[in-house]
Amino acid sequence: QVQLVESGGGLVQAGGSLRLSCAASGRTFSTYSMAWFRQAPGKEREFVAGIYWLGANLYYADSVKGRFTISRDNAKSTLYLQMNSLKPEDTAVYYCATGLGAYERYPRSPVEVYYWGQGTQVTVSS
Questions:
Q1: What is the pLDDT, as a whole number, of residue 50?
Q2: Which of 24, 97, 101, 126 is positioned for an S-S bond with 113, CB 3.0–4.6 A?
C-alpha cells in the first residue's frame, strides 16, 4: 500500500520561506512522477508543481512560478517543495500526490491522482 506523509507546514509571515517534505513508501519511488497540490478554504484543490520520476523535468502553476521549487531525493524516497517569497494567498493545505502507473506523467488535476497524502497546513500572515 502506498503511503505519502507530508511535513514542514506552519505559520510564516509574508515574504518568508518554508520547505515541505513528503515521505513515500510502499512502492519504488524512483519510477513514479509526483506532484504537489493545494486547497485553500472555500476553493477547489489545485495543481502547484509536478516532477517526473528522474527529477529532470519540472512544472509549475503560473501562480507559484519563480517562487516555488519542486525536487526529489530518490535515495530517500522523499519529495520536497521549497516555497520562497510566500504570500497570504499561498495559505492552503498542501498535498503530496501521485498517479497509479510507473513512468507516467505527473498528475495535473485532482481527478488524475491515485494516491494522496494527508496534507499539511501552510498559513501565511500579512
A1: 98
A2: 97
